[in-house]
Each structure stands twice: as structure tokens, then as C-alpha cells.
């Protein structure tokens, strides 16, 4: 990111670590002889004081939609989290190497551990990220732009929703089954994130679903077939990287066979090692081979490897399996440390444990001052070796210097018409008919759209798309009723009298519907509902195949 590097300065000749004074904040010079990002990182790490080394491996969240100008409520939140008023002050005080932007909606299953929202629209996000980079450029490690990440998975976990090209959830790509379309769509997403100053996307989800019990991950997964999921994950990684963003595979070594939400408790992976190798690890292997630069460790009890120990804190999982067996050389980032399984220890102890297990970047510590101080104290008493901290900081800085080589696209690319084509393609290819006849016009006469509670936007978007497709839409009493269900809905939200029932999330619920026509879009993204309207109007044939097995129904009737 050339713009961001231009903000940095050469500074004065620094003292070498560990003699550098703790209050030194001038940017340090990176020798011009450093030929590549790894060498640049090593040269910089050798000059950093302990406080700066610790800062490189921390990636908290902050309150406020601006780096420097925040509301009274955001000031209070930042004071409680880190003893500062603004995100910029947080970066400066703790010498941070990264920060995560958060935001959630009512449908977001990951919103439980995110008490704030600091994303709104592309212009605001760009101004926020520029402010963060300006603050960071003044620090000793300012020669490398900081990591700014977010969870832009699309589908139910979509942080930035306004003004961007909205991809459908992962399962829609699985239903389309076209890796070329997947890669192209994710390259659009990556370019837009890079234009806004976001250089890390905590996506794609590499979890393979283990059947109807896998509701925790749900449509965030590409499906239940390890080989097909692996192909989709690799395509998403390639797309993001082509757009200028680092992809982070999650949740290692696989959250899809669990029935417990790791935000609330520690899920158990009961598979034996053979099943883990065959059913969970293939997408992670494929994503690593495709160039994923980060892997996120999950708060998961992997009984076949290290029973009783969350993978985030397990050296057997992160060092022996991920580094050793899978040969991953990039950055291992913890899942959020403010989630329940990681709160079993005080913040400082949890940070040290996570680093010692093999994480290089610690996401969302619940108490930033305690995490920072805990690592410094552990350095002094030997419970955290300087070698391990230096290794982690070097990996993080290598990634940052690597990303700095990409020039950010202009803001005009965000939400541009050029991004519409791949979204249209995945919509057209993913709509799946699980019950009903495949040929001819699906709907005749006036149409009434009904929804489960709280889905008024989806109803409005589908009605508009149906009108554009040439169908008459009436508020009630239509000869055909199309009923929409989505994330979190159950059998009680089905409509007994609907001629057509459409699932905008996991298709498992369709097994309980009596409607003569059952369709799945896997997402309520606008392009998916437009494609659905074309199918209902007989202008397009449903081409998708369900990427998960639904009891009593075929993967497609077409």
C-alpha cells in the first residue's frame, strides 16, 4: 500500500534492542539492504524495544467510527478497554501492530462478543483506516503499515454492508459449484476492502459441515463435502489475494462438526484423527497451498490431539499439527480472546498461553492493558521466551511488509458496476430447486410475499425483483404465496399455506415444509433475490445443487 508507506518516516538512528528506552516512539529505519519482506521484518524486529515487540502481536478492537474524533460513549468504552479516549491513542499507547474493525447486525451469530460497531460506509471506513495508519506511522515499527482487519465473510457475517458489493454467503458459492466464479467474486471483495484500507479479511470459513447438527457455522460454510469445500476455499483465498487483501482461514482445525457455539462454551471435536484428516483438514490444506497468509485458531477441544485443551492454547494443534504436518509458515491468529473458552484465564495469562501455543497475533483481548503487561512480565520471568515473541513479531511484520507492496485500488472501485457481474453469476448458478418441477414458469397470477418475523428488507427486495421480472405483486390474497425463511428460523416460522417456500440460509428447514415448491438461495443478498425472482418468473432455470444433504429431499430436482 504505497499511500500508507508514504506516511512513514525514516527517523533517527535507533538504539538496538533491548537497550532502547521504553518511551522511544520515533519510527525506526529499515536498512535499504533488506531485500525482501522477511529480511525487512527481521531487521526491524532487531531494533524494537520490548514494549514494541509486544505491541506487534496484539490486535484489539476499539470504540469509535473515527481514529481521533469519537463520541462521549466511545471515549468511555475506550477508557474501559484500554485507558485511552480514541482508537489512535490506543494504537500509540500500546504500539499496536494491528486493529480489528467490528460491526454486527441482528442476524449476526458472531455479535455476542462485540459490544460496539465502528463501520458504517466505505468513506467512513477509509477515513478511519487512514487515521489509524497515520497514528501508527509515528511509532518505531511505523515503517510497515499496521494490519487492519475485519470479518467480511458475507452472508450472515458481514461487517460492512452499505455501499459495497454484497457477496452471498459461502454456501451459495458451494451450491453454484464454480470455482472461477468464486475467485472472481472474492477478487472484487478483496479490491473493495483494500480500497477502504482494510488489508486482512478474516475469511474464508474453511469449516466442513457435519450434517444438520452443524448449525453453529451453518451457511458460513461452503458445504458438507471436504473436497468441494477445499476447492471453494482455495478459490476464495486466491480471489482475496488478487484484490490486495490477506485471507485468514478459520476456524482451525475445523468448527463444522460441533454443536456448541465457541462464543459461549468450549465445543468438542470428537472425531478420531483419521476422520479429522479426511473430513476437516482438507480445506485448510487447500487454503494454505493457495496462499493463505493467516490461519485462525479455534476455541475447540480437539479430542484426537490434545483433549481438554482449546486449540487456541494447544501447542500440539498449532505447532505440531499446523506448523509441522500442514507446513504452514504464515501468521497464526487466535480467535477472539474475549470469547468464553479463552476467558478461563486472566487476560495476561491467556495472552502468554496463546503465544506459547503458537499464535503469532492475539485477537481482541478482553483487557488490553493486562494482556500487554502480562507479556512484558512473562518476558522478564522467562515464562515467555524472547525467541518465541521475536518469532511471532517477525511473522506479523513480514506479512505487513508484504502487504505494503500492494497499491490500494481507488475508492471508485467500491460498489462499482464492474462488481455486479460475478454476483449475478453466482446468483444465477446457485438457486436450487429441492422440490417441484424444473421447467416452465414457477409462478402464475399475482404473487404475495410473506416472511418470518423481522425479514422486511428481504421481502421488499424480492417484491421489487419480482416486479422487474414481470410479475404482479400484491400485499395479500395473491394466487401464489412465496414464503421466505432465513437464519435462525425454525419450523414455527414456516407457512403451511405457502405454495413456494424459500430458504435464505441453511436449507435443512425445507425438510419440514409442505409447500409443493421448495427453493434455496442460501443468502438474502440482493443478487440472490434477483436470481430467485427470475426463476419464479420462468426467466431462468435453477442451476444450483444443495451443498448439504437435506433429509428426504434431493440435492436438486433439475
UniProtKB/TrEMBL annotation:
GO terms for biological process: carbohydrate metabolic process; peptidoglycan turnover. Residues 11-35 are annotated as: Disordered. The keyword Hydrolase applies. Residues 26-35 have a biased composition (Low complexity). Gene3D superfamilies: Glycoside hydrolase family 3 C-terminal domain (3.40.50.1700), Glycoside hydrolase, family 3, N-terminal domain (3.20.20.300). Keywords: Glycosidase, Hydrolase. Residues 86-399 form the Glycoside hydrolase family 3 N-terminal domain. This is beta-N-acetylhexosaminidase. One of its GO terms (molecular function) is beta-N-acetylhexosaminidase activity. It catalyses: Hydrolysis of terminal non-reducing N-acetyl-D-hexosamine residues in N-acetyl-beta-D-hexosaminides. PANTHER family: BETA-HEXOSAMINIDASE, BETA-HEXOSAMINIDASE-RELATED. InterPro entries: GH, Glyco_hydro_3_AS, Glyco_hydro_3_C_sf, Glyco_hydro_3_N, Glyco_hydro_3_N_sf, NagZ_Beta-hexosaminidase. Belongs to the glycosyl hydrolase 3 family. Its EC number is 3.2.1.52.
Amino acid at each position: 500500500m504505497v499511500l500508507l508507506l508514504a506516511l512513514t518516516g525514516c527517523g533517527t538512528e535507533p538504539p538496538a534492542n533491548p537497550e532502547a528506552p521504553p518511551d522511544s516512539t520515533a519510527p525506526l529505519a529499515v536498512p535499504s539492504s533488506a531485500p525482501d519482506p522477511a529480511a525487512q521484518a527481521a531487521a526491524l524486529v532487531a531494533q524494537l524495544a520490548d514494549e514494541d515487540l509486544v505491541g506487534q502481536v496484539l490486535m484489539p478492537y476499539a470504540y469509535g467510527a473515527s481514529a481521533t474524533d469519537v463520541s462521549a460513549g466511545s471515549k468511555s468504552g475506550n477508557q474501559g478497554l484500554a485507558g485511552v479516549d480514541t482508537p489512535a491513542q490506543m494504537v500509540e499507547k500500546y504500539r499496536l501492530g494491528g486493529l480489528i474493525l467490528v460491526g454486527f447486525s441482528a442476524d449476526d451469530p458472531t455479535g455476542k462478543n462485540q459490544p460496539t460497531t465502528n463501520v458504517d460506509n466505505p468513506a467512513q471506513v477509509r477515513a478511519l483506516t487512514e487515521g489509524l495508519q497515520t497514528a501508527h506511522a509515528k511509532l518505531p515499527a511505523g515503517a510497515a503499515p499496521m494490519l487492519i482487519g475485519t470479518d467480511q465473510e458475507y452472508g450472515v457475517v458481514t461487517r460492512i454492508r452499505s455501499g459495497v458489493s454484497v457477496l452471498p454467503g459461502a454456501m451459495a458459492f458451494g451450491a453454484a459449484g464454480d470455482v472461477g466464479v468464486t475467485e472472481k467474486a472474492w477478487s472484487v471483495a478483496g479490491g473493495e476492502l483494500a480500497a477502504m484500507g482494510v488489508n486482512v479479511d478474516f475469511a474464508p470459513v474453511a469449516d466442513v459441515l457435519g450434517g444438520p447438527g452443524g448449525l453453529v457455522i451453518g451457511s458460513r460454510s461452503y458445504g458438507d463435502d471436504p473436497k468441494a469445500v477445499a476447492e471453494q476455499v482455495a478459490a476464495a483465498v486466491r480471489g482475496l489475494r488478487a484484490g490486495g487483501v490477506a485471507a485468514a482461514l478459520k476456524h482451525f482445525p475445523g468448527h463444522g462438526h460441533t454443536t456448541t457455539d465457541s462464543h459461549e462454551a468450549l465445543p468438542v471435536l470428537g472425531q478420531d484423527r483419521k476422520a479429522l484428516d479426511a473430513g476437516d483438514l482438507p480445506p485448510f490444506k487447500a487454503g494454505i497451498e493457495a496462499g493463505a497468509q493467516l490461519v485462525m485458531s479455534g476455541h475447540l477441544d480437539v479430542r484426537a490431539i490434545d483433549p481438554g485443551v482449546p486449540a487456541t492454547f494447544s501447542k500440539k494443534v498449532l505447532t505440531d499439527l499446523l506448523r509441522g504436518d500442514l507446513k504452514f509458515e504464515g501468521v497464526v491468529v487466535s480467535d477472539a480472546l474475549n470469547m468464553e473458552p479463552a476467558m478461563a484465564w486472566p487476560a495476561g495469562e491467556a495472552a502468554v498461553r496463546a503465544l506459547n501455543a503458537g499464535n503469532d497475533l492475539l485477537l481482541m483481548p478482553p483487557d488490553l492493558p493486562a494482556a500487554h503487561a502480562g507479556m512484558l512480565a512473562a518476558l522478564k520471568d522467562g515464562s515467555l521466551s524472547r525467541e518465541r515473541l521475536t518469532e511471532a513479531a517477525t511473522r506479523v511484520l513480514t506479512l505487513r511488509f508484504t502487504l505494503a507492496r500492494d497499491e490500494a485500488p481507488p475508492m471508485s472501485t467500491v460498489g462499482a458496476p464492474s462488481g455486479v457481474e460475478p454476483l449475478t453469476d453466482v446468483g444465477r448458478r446457485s438457486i436450487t430447486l429441492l422440490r417441484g418441477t424444473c421447467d416452465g414458469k414457477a409462478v402464475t397470477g399475482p404473487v404475495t410475499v410473506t416472511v418470518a418475523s423481522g425479514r422486511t428488507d428481504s421481502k421488499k427486495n424480492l417484491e421489487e425483483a419480482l416486479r422487474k421480472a414481470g410479475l404482479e405483486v400484491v400485499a395479500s390474497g395473491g394466487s401464489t404465496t412465496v414464503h421466505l425463511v432465513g437464519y435462525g428460523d425454525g419450523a414455527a416460522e414456516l407457512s403451511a399455506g405457502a405454495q413456494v417456500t424459500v430458504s435464505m440460509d441453511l436449507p435443512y428447514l425445507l425438510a419440514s415444509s409442505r409447500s409443493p415448491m421448495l427453493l434455496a438461495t442460501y443468502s438474502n443478498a440482493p443478487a440472490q433475490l434477483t436470481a430467485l425472482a427470475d426463476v419464479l418468473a420462468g426467466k431462468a432455470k435453477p442451476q444450483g445443487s444443495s451443498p448439504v444433504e437435506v433429509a428426504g429431499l434431493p440435492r436438486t430436482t433439475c
